[in-house]
Design a protein that fits this description.
InterPro entries: HTH_67 (IPR054058). This is SalK. The chain is mostly helical and about 280 residues long. It has one domain. The protein has helices at about 5-20, 25-35, 35-45, 55-60, 65-70, 75-80, 85-100, 105-120, 130-135, 145-170, 175-180, 190-195, 200-210, 220-240, 250-265, and strands at about 215, 220. It has a two-stranded antiparallel sheet with strand order 1-2. Strand 1 (about 215) and strand 2 form a beta hairpin. The model has no long low-confidence stretch (mean pLDDT about 95).
Amino acid sequence: MDDSIARDLWTVLEPLHAVTYFSPECLEANKDVGLKGFWMGYFGSRGAPLGAVPAGVVEATFFGFHPSRVRRAVPDAWRFASPESILAVRGVAAARALRRIVPGIERAAAEAAPLLRRAVEEADAAGRPLFGANRDLDVPDDPVEALWQAATALREHRGDGHVAVLTGEGLDGLTSNVLAAAVGAVVPDQMLAARGWTREQWDEAADALAARGLVDGGTATGEGRALKARIEERTDALAAPPYRVLDDPKALYDRLVPAARAVADAGEMPFPNPIGLPRVGAA
């Protein structure tokens, strides 16, 4: 199995997971459980598997956000809604959104969820706190919820590995965002709004990357593009092992392509987006 299949699977699993950030069912569920506003909903819902952790844990594991954005939401989130109450609604809401958006999701879930769960169970959680926390949640009886939960665990597995690669290359949360924008993977203004950094901080980070020969005038140099390519290749390599237990990962990818396209076509998730996720099948 070539490591690139891990990237292919990310492009179909990430849209299924990401309904939790963009779909009205999920935004309403966060509100109903007591979380206040979009960002408390985001940090509270995504962070709930970790338990009622302090802001520093969320800042470290989520990685790309300005610390002040995290600290405006955590630990206050846990005063409004316990992690247990959040976990009771987030998968249910995501499954409701997927049923609305994706034709045939029940059949796709029945076929794909057990395979994804096998990958989750075989994956190594060492050094992967968000993955480990999601892996250990109870498996839902509902197949669409189970599909969403497995997709979520595996995207966090990839994300934890990605953070390790970025830090190993001497990049912090801000400089990694600036480099991603410099190669065209994300849009600078969108990232500033989504991650909470100021323009001055962004420009200082760009200057730091320029001093390393990675960026010139907001655009990645050849060296910068090569570094970003190595980061993505290494991320794929670290994300691939869970899928090696499957007989045919490519068939799993093919099975989930229609669902991922349906989520993209629903228009609730923007393209481009702060995740840096392309439409499935895009280069």
